[in-house]
Amino acid sequence: MKAKDIRELAPTEIETKLRETREALLDLRLKKNAGLVEKPHQLRSLRKEIARLETILNEKQTAAA
Asked: What is the domain range of residue 8?
C-alpha cells in the first residue's frame, strides 16, 4: 500500500491494517523458521509497510491533538 492510499484512510482503518500486517509478518517469520518461505523479500516489504502505517498514524494523531 502506498503512503498516499494510507493517508486517505481513517485512523481506525489504519490500526486495523496495522494489526493485519503485523499478523502476516508473524506468520511469515514462523514459516521462515520452518524453512517454508517461498518469497523471503516479503519480510522486508512487510516491515516497511508497518513503518509506513505507524508513521502516518502518528502524524494523524499529532495533527488531531
From this structure: 3-64
